[in-house]
Structure formats: C-alpha cells, structure tokens
Write a structure and sequence with these properties.
The protein is about 40% helix and about 25% strand. A seven-stranded parallel β-sheet has the order 6-5-4-9-12-14-15, with helices on both faces. A three-stranded antiparallel β-sheet has the order 1-3-2. The chain has ten helices and 15 strands. Strand 7 and strand 8 form a beta hairpin. The chain has about 260 residues and is α/β, with parallel strands linked by helices.
Length: about 260
C-alpha cells in the first residue's frame, strides 16, 4: 500500500469522524483520484469496521473506536471516569512501580496518587507526566519517541526499546475499543505496539474504561481480553461481557452499582 493511499484513507477516517458521512464524488474531486479508487478506499474502510457503505458514499460506524482528540474524550462521561480512576488507585501501594498508559481515564488517576510514597511511575503521556512532576514523592519516568498530538502520547521504536528494559508491578491500561472477540484495540498501530510491550513488562494488567467502549473495535490489537487481570468500569457493561469475563478469570469491578 502506497504512502499516498495510507494518507488518503487516514484523511477519510478523520472526515467520517468529524462529519459523520462522506460522498464518493466529493472525495474524488478532493484527492484528484478516480471514483473507482475512492470506492476501493471505502470498501477497505468498511472491512476494517469504521465505515458503513451507503448510496453514493459511506457513513461512520458508531461501533468503531475512532481516534478522537484528548480534549473531547476527556469531557465524555468525566464523572464516571473519575470514579473509575479512584477505584483503580486503590490498587496502588507505596513503593510500587507502575505504568500509566495515555488516556482520559488514566489521566484522572493522577490526583489520587498524591498521598502515595516511593512510587515509580512510567508513562507515555505528556499530560500525565507534567501533572505527576508536581509530586515530590513520585519518581516519574517519561518514554521518549514520536508524539501523537491527538492524545498527548509518545510512541515509536525509541519508546519501545526503553520500556522493554524494565519490569513493573502494575499497568493501568486505557481502552479505545473493548470487544470480547476482537480484544482490546486502538486505532493507532504505533501505540498498539507500545501497549503490547507494556503488557509484557507488567506483572498485573488493570484495564480502566467507561461503558461506552464495549462492543467497539478498531484496527490494532493491544491484547486479548483474557490477558487482563482486572477490569474497572461502570454498570453499562453488557451482561454477556460480565459473564464471559468471569469465565476467563477476569475480575470485573463496577464503580456505580
């Protein structure tokens, strides 16, 4: 797949997210490519789950985990995210070594770590690192690499090589999409790869997500559902998810019951 094709399809995904739908003729004119090329793009995006074909174009699939800007994600269900973050912080003990993944829910954990002592926290989130830097009792480690402006996060080979050198007690993993069959997914390949290494170097994996993420899936696998140890979420989790996760040995914690 050429670089032009990748960039064009990424732009179409952004348009689907922001506008809700796209037209073949409009896209053909914008990118100066044939109608057949655009139809192939939309067919590809439909197979990937982010688009639903319609007459003359396509609509956004609301079940797809789009890569939304952090400012937008942070305001959605914020009260629930704070409850989830507070419960997650109860798993932290003084002296622990942690990974805080980037994300709007993991970012809400920061205030609840204020009174802990001798913590080592590694993160790939610039906003989380900035906030944690104010706490003298926490040793903050920041991964280096490329920056994702949408999420204030770091990814890339430099971050992966750095992370692989360490071992941690607990990973607090943010979630873009959570599907029983597809697993935990994210739209960005580089971040997915880094998240997989996070899972490898952590003794315990705790996924934190509000209920809107269930049933959504995206391009890139982070881990299978059976790999996580605890899931902290709200009461919107579907019944079949709770039952299946219990069968897999995942401890599901509901914060608003």
């Amino acid at each position: 797949m050429s670089t032009d094709t990748i960039k064009r399809r990424e732009t179409i995904i952004d348009m689907l997210y922001h506008d809700g739908s796209v037209k073949v003729a409009t896209l053909s004119q914008r990118f100066n490519v044939s109608l057949v090329t655009i139809r192939n793009d939309l067919r590809y995006l439909e197979k990937k789950g982010c688009a639903l074909r319609s007459y003359g174009g396509a609509m956004a699939n609301n079940k797809f985990a789009f890569d939304r800007p952090f400012q937008i994600k942070g305001q959605i269900d914020r009260a629930l995210k704070i409850l989830i973050a507070a419960k997650a912080a109860e798993f932290v003990q003084d002296g622990d070594s942690l990974i805080l993944d980037s994300g709007s829910t993991t970012a809400e954990m920061v205030p609840f770590l204020r009174n802990h002592h001798a913590l080592v926290v590694m993160t790939n989130a610039l906003n989380i690192a900035y906030q944690l830097a104010n706490f003298e009792q926490i040793d903050v480690m920041v991964l280096g690499g490329n920056t994702r402006k949408n999420s204030y996060s770091i990814y890339g080979s430099v971050a992966e090589q750095q992370l692989a050198q360490y071992r941690f007690n607990t990973l607090f993993l943010g979630v873009d999409g959570f599907d029983l069959e597809a697993g935990i997914t994210t739209p960005h390949p580089g971040e997915a790869h880094l998240n997989r290494i996070m899972c490898d170097v952590a003794h315990q994996i705790i996924a934190v997500t509000d209920g809107s993420k269930f049933g959504r899936k995206s391009f890139c696998l982070i881990c299978e559902t059976k790999q996580i140890h605890h899931l902290i979420t709200d009461s919107r989790i579907p019944k079949q998810y709770r039952e299946k996760l219990a069968e897999l040995g995942v401890n599901v914690i509901i914060v608003d019951e």
